[in-house]
Amino acid sequence: MITVYIVFTFLLAVFYNLLLTKYGKLWKNIPEIEGIISSKKSTSFISILIPFRNEANSLPRLIESLNQLEVSGIELEVIFINDHSTDSSCDLLNLCKLPFSVLHLEDKKGKKAAIELGWEKSGGDIIFQTDADCVLPQQWVSSMLQSFDHPLINFVSGPVIYFEPKNFWQKIVALDFSSLIAIGAAHINWQKPLMCNGANMAYRRSLVANANIHLNKASGDDVFLLQSAFNLKQNSIRFCKNKQAIVKTEGPKSLSFFWNQRLRWASKNSDYDSRFNTVLMICIWLYNFTIVGSVLSFSKLGILVAFFLLLIKTISELNFYNNYMQFMGVKKGYFLILFGQLFHVAYMAILPIFSQLLSYKWKARVVK
Description:
Strand content: 5-15%
Shape: globular
Strand order of the largest sheet: 3-2-1-4-8-6-9
Radius of gyration: 21 Å
CATH superfamily of the largest domain: Spore Coat Polysaccharide Biosynthesis Protein SpsA, Chain A
Number of helices: 12
């Protein structure tokens, strides 16, 4: 059994190192776009959809960033969709007296229902999506539009980063979040779509008619749209590697908020339609679970195995994540990556299991 355990550990280490090396090459091979498309060249009508629920504290900064968008020569509409807010969000939008439409969900509830209502009421050829707790860069629309320069492209995922972290906890979760965006970008370039973020994405209206966003799931509108685009037409998805397209969003301020957010994101994993990605996620979970299980064995061999796998994980991730953070304009975080390993391994070992068993609380709703 000891021999099998050691061989298994070695194979896991080889797998993880090869995977992160592959991710690094995929990220590096995404062409970085500098500058923006000339607005005079855009003939598309753009719809910006923003679902919201109880975002009165966040809406003012989003509205300010919307007002500062440079969209000269671009015809667009901005539509807010209210998902049964119980705070002053709607009053705030009404007081703004801005040229934004505000729709209200009636019978249905949830972000996906809000997006569907936005699809029904919007008229854009290209639909942009973001969240109400975001801040948009001035060149957001023009930068993302540039990725639609080829008629084959149906879906574009954009870069997202948390607001400047103010303490060590926020730095750890910001690094964790950045790793998800980076891996999602690598998979898009690999043409094996795994994840993206609804805070920054755009797609053609033609995709909507054939989209499968799994209304029975509370989360995953972004991922399921991405997968729908790929399933309809391969090589039709793209990551916008443009610094002027970076959207900033609010990160979790507490461990409870973080846990519920990750439960929500992971709850959709059972609905992935790619066997390749499913097997890949199982292998990554197995890697982290083996580290935790080895430590809990309280044996000398177990501790050595855990240390070895943790060392391989850290070395494999350093170059990949630092290259991504350099693009995002974040200082290289060697210490954060080293310390963050313990946090990441611990929650990744249990999250996939609990995400399929537990309910979670989101936007003052309990979701099962």
